[in-house]
Design a protein that fits this description.
Strand content of chain A: 25-35%
Number of helices of chain B: 5
Number of domains of chain A: 2
Distance between the termini of chain A: 63 Å
Strand content of chain B: over 45%
CATH class of the largest domain in chain B: Mainly Beta
Largest sheet of chain B: 25 strands, antiparallel
Distance between the termini of chain B: 44 Å
Number of strands of chain B: 57
Shape of chain A: globular
Shape of chain B: elongated
Radius of gyration of chain A: 22 Å
CATH superfamily of the largest domain in chain B: TonB-dependent receptor, beta-barrel domain
Oligomer: heterodimer
Helix content of chain A: under 10%
CATH architecture of the largest domain in chain B: Beta Barrel
Largest interface: A-B, 99 and 116 residues
Structural class of chain A: mainly beta
Helix content of chain B: under 10%
């Protein structure tokens, strides 16, 4: 008896070993920001009810050397229930990218029949749901339609003033999905603060955004709104005892692991109800409580991390208290911004940012 | 004292009837091998001869040609015996391998005084033209009498010439063979009533020169043979030439033709024990050696895939004596689940295999477990005839350690073997994984075990086995991969299986054989990461039984059943993963899992029959048919197949043993092969019930050419037409609908230039040229199959230098693997998948990027020390000697805008130590 689909994965384990034992190039890790980047998109309702309006909020950053340039953010209309839930199946809709809306926030209404109009799953134990995709494009130039030849090619390009199509350093496109279940809901992870060098950072020195990001009623600190670097970070007074912990000396090795390591992590209270969500889909399948899978993406525009992605909670083994990472200071003095985006496996995300001073 | 050593004779041969075949030298030898009855001729020395497949009196036996001595080695006359004027006959039991080399020389009844050892030493240097069965070389054991006689002093009268009138000469050979018989006494009764006697020389010849014309009575005798007499006429001025053939009458020595049945497949590639554990680059691992054969593609990286003739790894199945193995390698590629020490041989059928095998559209690997070895060894490993001794082995290398014990059981003809192995990769992999940011809760470890109890007689074999394997691995990944962070956290992996197996092989009657295998056990595969999991427990029962009927001369019919009954329980909780060739659907991170839990019983019975037709000695045709049914799909499959082999030129003709004729064989085959869909493809949640089996039609045609006695060239072209392949298309339900619209084809050529294993050397050059393509439907574009590999050249060899040293090397040069690259500028190479914080690759045409050429040199050195009661050996196997940074895949940065090559393993030395007694 063979289940090749999964056995193939098992057989692929040697390839994992190869990744460990073999040799590959050292690319810059995703945590280091040197270009135009989207760091996260928050939905006020990671699982939306049918008929509900979903608000989307993008956190992005232009960490390129041309940070002052104009950047365009556009959102497509929603694409509901594509074949096999494949995002690229939406590309067959010729009107998907017409009438794109602009700004760091967008919203759309989930159809009331998003669930009922789909055929039910063949096994009733599996949850019935609907899905919506929204595409976006962040462009340091002008967005233009481009001819596509491949099935998955993105039909929008970004060109500069000379008409040249820009690459991924200056153009980020992507998608966000929103699931709708009959009775399942999800909260965004709740990030309450930041800790640096083992101590909490004063509330005035960090920003957080943990959802309910309604355009009309935003929560969190302004620093974390919209473009991450849109407002110049406040300088840090290293002589102020309340801020001194955020000051670190520069390192000649420029962020190398030989530099002094500073413990850093967002404050994520595991007792907070938003951080204790159950994975309802798995719970229904298993007939017992199953936690969410949660992880943290770290980003910085100066310096490096020991680990760019850390496990926060595992569905089976539970909470990982050691979810922080180490920060290595860069060679050049200045302000360094650090973000931590806390994800769960059901489309939820919360984030926090802090500014450090490298002396 | 003048003395000489006289080569005597082969004592016993196949039990064929026919007392004496007297013929004129020029007369063609008739093909009389069919007259064998297996009856026991009696005679003075009264031997009992047991052919392996006793034929009934009325049935035609397989055509068996006995080994022919082509190099005789004179023994050293024991000095003390010579001085004492002692003579002796030493009866040896010689085991002659397929290449005609004497692999063992035993003395069943020692005569002492140094004669036994001298005869043994000489006999081990004999070379034979190998015995054949229906033209195929086979190993045999024969009895051989080596006589030590002192040469008589020259007699004065012998120098006196007789009256010249005519000559009478001839040769004495073995019945049914061209083997000359040396030392036979030829006695002539002259017309005047006087007698004269001569002895045949080393080439079996005799002569009586210058004798008077008239009728001569000729009497030929030799110990162990039925004497013959005949009347010859000497004509004035002419030479009368006669050939006599003697039939053995040996007793007490059993001859077992150890050859295999002729193949019922067009191409069977067998790796012998001599080769299995000496192929460089495999660390002595048996199944890894398969990857050095033509038709087998090099798998990527360390993967243990068997990619046969452009087929998917899932399309090739591996059996252990007919019982399907759920996995071949520990951890997907580290080492075989059945250790080399317990393997007798590996048969590999790359295509056009017989009706015996079904439910598979690629290739077949059938490994045979060996019978426990109880042969006793003398001091310093000297071979002896005695049986009933224990043997043990302990081995360690950098991956694992293993133990083996085998020997006799108290009951007669019962033997046993037990073995076990455990890895210690956990010792070095655990810190490696922890350095990579993982918390290791159960370090990777594997073990396997085997137990065999065997009962063997001349006509039957009964074997009970228990064997199994277990791999475990559990870590907590606290640094999830940025590419898909959901695939982090607790990761556990485990595979295990165990089997109880019974084999029974016997000859029910001289013309009816029975071969039965029954096995039962459990397979388990478990994998979980995060909130995804896959658990499959199967309790497979395999039953195979085949009856072989020798219907008439040249006609044998085999009919069998091949049942697979498998209660199973499977739980799958995963989002739909992509299939090969499909675009990246994005990270799993936020996708809700789907679950299927099924508890059911799979039943797949199969019936087959084939006929081995040999209308002439040159032609062999095997038509066959197979019927399969799969209860899970509700469909049956009918698979007709045929293969044929024709000896365009026969090998060395028995009538003209000195000829240099080399066999040329044409071969071809065509057949239909079905493979049921994978279970997830017909599962209601993940697949579509009611699918039909995948269908492949195999065509192949080839030629085998003996270039020298040791070297053979085989060239074969093949074509596989793949239809009704399971494919799938997205549906509105958010999943996929599976169908049988997939198509494909594989075309290629294989070349094997092989130096057959000899005492000193084995090696081959293997080359495969192939192209494998697929289409998801008749209207969809064709693309290269994931594992397509245009060129694959392998050169390997291993040479015994002497003094226990052996040195080998393997060089491979292979077309690079295929990859699906990201779209290139100006297109965007990836999209940001916001739910996971990772990027989704935007891919170009599937498998359209060919990675650079792969090449690698592996070297191996073995050294063996023989002590009085045990042996110690060690090997150093160095893979990738010149540290080539072979490209195994494409590696990208986080947003796929930059890419580079992922290179394979660097130079890897592997050291092994072994002690055995």
């Amino acid at each position: 008896m063979q289940w090749s689909m999964f056995e193939g994965w098992l057989r692929a384990l040697p390839l994992v070993s190869l990744a460990v034992l073999g040799c590959g190039p050292d690319f810059d890790p995703p945590s280091e920001l040197h270009s135009l980047r989207v760091l996260g998109i928050q939905k006020d309702m990671p699982y939306a009810d049918p008929g509900q309006t979903v608000h989307l909020h993008m956190l992005w950053e232009d960490a390129s050397e041309h940070a002052a340039r104009s950047v365009v953010v556009r959102w497509s209309g929603p694409c509901f229930d594509p074949a096999a839930d494949l995002y690229y199946a939406c590309f067959t809709d010729p009107n998907l990218f017409t009438g794109m809306t602009g700004g760091d926030r967008a919203s759309f209404a989930m159809p009331k029949d998003i669930i009922s109009r789909r055929p039910p799953p063949s096994d009733a134990k599996n949850a019935r749901y609907g899905i919506a995709y929204v595409f976006f494009a962040v462009c340091a130039g002008e967005l233009v339609p481009v001819p596509v030849t491949e099935e998955t090619a993105f039909p929008i390009g970004c060109r500069d003033e000379s008409g040249k199509l820009l690459g991924s350093d200056d153009f980020v496109a992507g998608y966000v999905s929103v699931y709708s279940f009959q009775s399942f809901h999800n909260d965004n992870p709740f990030v309450s603060g930041f800790e640096f060098q083992g101590r909490p950072v004063a509330s005035a020195s960090f920003c957080t955004d943990h959802g309910s990001a309604d355009a009309d009623d935003p929560t969190g600190t302004d620093d974390c709104q919209a473009r991450a670097g849109s407002s110049a970070p406040r300088d840090i007074d290293c002589d102020d005892p309340k801020q001194a912990q955020l000051c670190v000396p520069s390192c000649a090795a420029d962020g190398d692991s030989s530099c002094p390591a500073y413990a850093i992590r967002p404050t994520v209270d595991k007792s907070n109800v938003s951080n204790q969500n159950q994975d309802d889909v798995s719970k229904q399948l298993l007939g017992r409580n199953v936690g969410e899978q949660m992880w943290i993406d770290y980003y910085t525009d100066a310096g490096k991390f020991k680990s760019a992605v850390r496990l926060l909670s595992d569905a089976t083994s539970g909470w990982n208290d050691d979810y922080g990472t180490k920060y290595y200071a860069p060679k050049a003095p200045g302000l360094a911004r650090v973000w931590a985006l806390v994800h769960d496996n059901r489309g939820g995300v919360g984030w926090a940012g802090v500014t450090l001073k490298v002396q | 004292m003048v003395f000489a050593v006289r080569r005597i004779c082969l004592l016993v041969v196949l039990a064929a009837s026919g007392s004496l075949a007297k013929e004129r030298t020029a007369a063609a030898q008739s093909d009389d091998s069919s007259q064998g009855t297996g009856s026991v001729p009696s005679g003075a020395s009264g031997a009992v001869v047991k052919p392996p497949e006793p034929a009934p009196g009325a049935r035609k036996k397989p055509v068996i040609v006995l080994p022919e001595l082509i190099h005789f080695e004179h023994a050293t006359y024991p000095p003390a015996a010579a001085k004492a004027g002692q003579e002796a006959d030493v009866t040896l039991k010689l085991t002659i391998d397929r290449d005609g080399n004497v692999s063992k020389a035993e003395v069943p009844a020692p005569v002492g005084k140094g004669f036994d050892e001298a005869a043994q030493q000489a006999a081990l240097k004999f070379t034979f033209r190998p015995a054949t069965r229906d033209g195929v070389p086979i190993p045999v054991a024969i009895a051989y009498r080596y006589s030590f006689t002192l040469a008589p002093a020259p007699a004065a009268e012998a120098a006196q010439p007789a009256q010249t009138a005519g000559n009478l000469s001839g040769i004495v050979r073995l019945a049914q063979s061209n083997t000359p018989l040396a030392g036979a006494a030829v006695t002539f009764t002259l017309p005047d009533g006087t007698q004269r006697q001569v002895t045949t020389d080393d080439s079996g010849k005799w002569q009586l020169a210058n004798v008077a014309p008239g009728q001569y009575r000729v009497h030929v005798e030799s110990p162990g043979f039925q004497p013959v007499e005949n009347q010859e006429e000497v004509v004035l001025g002419q030479e009368t030439n006669a050939t006599y053939r003697l039939t053995p009458v040996a007793e007490g020595i059993e001859i077992t033709v150890q050859g295999e049945r002729p193949p019922r497949e067009m191409t069977r590639r067998t790796i012998e024990r001599r080769e299995i554990d000496r192929i460089p680059g495999t660390s002595g691992d048996a199944l890894r050696s398969l990857q050095s054969l033509p038709g087998v593609a090099r798998p990527p990286g360390l993967a243990g895939f068997l990619i046969v003739r452009g087929s998917s790894p899932n399309d090739t199945q591996v059996y252990a004596d007919g019982s399907l193995l759920p996995l071949i390698y520990h951890f997907g590629g580290l080492s075989s689940v059945v250790p080399t020490e317990l393997l007798d041989k590996i048969d590999f059928y790359p295509g056009n295999f017989g009706a015996k095998y079904g439910r598979v559209q690629g290739g077949i690997v059938d490994v045979a477990l060996r019978s426990p070895d109880t042969q006793c060894l003398g001091p310093y490993g000297a071979p002896t005839e005695k049986k009933g001794c224990f043997h043990g082995m302990a081995q360690v290398d950098l991956i694992d350690g293993r133990l083996l014990l085998q020997g006799p059981l108290p009951a007669k003809n019962w033997t046993f073997a037990v073995a076990g192995r455990r890895s210690w990769i956990d010792l070095w992999l655990k810190p490696l994984l922890e350095r990579a940011g993982s918390s290791v809760t159960a370090a990777p470890v594997y073990y396997d075990y085997q137990a065999i109890v065997d009962h063997k007689t001349a006509s039957s074999r009964f074997s009970l086995r228990a064997f199994g394997s277990d791999d475990k691995f559990r870590i907590i990944i606290t640094d999830p991969a940025a590419e898909d962070p959901a695939l982090g956290g607790a990761l556990s992996f485990g595979t295990s299986f165990y089997r109880g197996q019974m084999l029974y092989q016997t000859d029910l009657t001289p013309s009816v054989s029975l071969d039965t295998m029954l096995s039962a056990g459990k397979n388990s595969i478990g994998f979980s990461v995060g909130n995804f999991l896959f658990n499959l427990d199967t309790y497979p029962i395999y039953a195979r039984s085949e009856l072989g009927f020798k219907v008439a001369t040249g006609v044998k019919v085999n009919a069998g059943l091949d049942f697979e009954l498998a209660p199973y329980e499977v739980t799958v909780r995963f989002p739909q993963p992509p299939r090969a060739g499909e675009p990246d659907p994005g990270p799993f991170a936020s996708k809700p899992p789907q679950e299927s839990h099924v508890k059911s019983t799979s039943f797949r019975p199969g019936w087959y029959a084939d006929a081995e037709l040999q209308p002439s000695r040159r032609l062999r045709i095997i038509p066959g048919v197979r019927v399969d049914y799969a209860r899970d799909t509700g469909h049956g499959d009918f698979s007709p197949r045929i293969v044929a082999r024709y000896d365009l030129l026969k090998g060395a003709d028995p009538v003209e043993p000195e000829s240099n004729a080399r066999r040329t064989t044409l071969k071809g085959g065509a057949g239909i092969y079905y493979q049921p869909p994978q279970f997830q493809e017909t599962n209601p949640v993940f697949g579509t019930p009611g699918l039909h089996s995948n269908r492949a039609v195999h065509y192949s045609i080839g030629v085998e050419q003996e270039l020298t006695k040791q070297v053979e060239l085989s060239v074969e072209g093949f074509y596989k037409d793949l239809t009704r392949q399971v494919a799938r298309a997205p549906n509105d339900q958010g999943t996929y609908t599976y169908n049988n619209f997939g198509l494909g084809s594989v075309v290629g050529m294989e070349l094997l230039l092989k130096y057959k294993p000899s005492k000193r050397f084995f090696g081959w050059v293997a080359y495969t040229l192939s192209r494998s393509v697929r289409r998801d439907s008749p209207d969809s574009p064709e693309y290269l199959f994931q594992y397509d590999q245009t060129h694959n050249l392998i050169v390997l060899g291993s040479y015994r230098l002497g003094r226990g040293w052996e040195f080998g090397g393997r060089f491979r040069i292979v077309t690079g693997s295929l990859d699906t690259a990201s779209l290139a500028t100006p297109a965007l190479p990836a999209l940001y998948a916001a739910d996971s914080g990772a990027y989704t690759q935007l891919q170009g045409k599937p498998y359209s990027t060919r990675l650079p050429l792969f090449h690698q040199l592996d070297l191996r050195v073995d050294k063996r020390w023989q002590f009085r009661d045990w042996r110690f050996s060690t090997y150093l196997d160095v893979q990738n000697v010149y540290n080539n940074a072979a490209v195994e895949g494409l590696s990208y940065n986080y947003d796929y805008s930059r890419r580079s090559y992922q290179t394979g393993i660097p130079i890897i030395p592997s050291l092994g130590l072994r002690g055995e007694f």
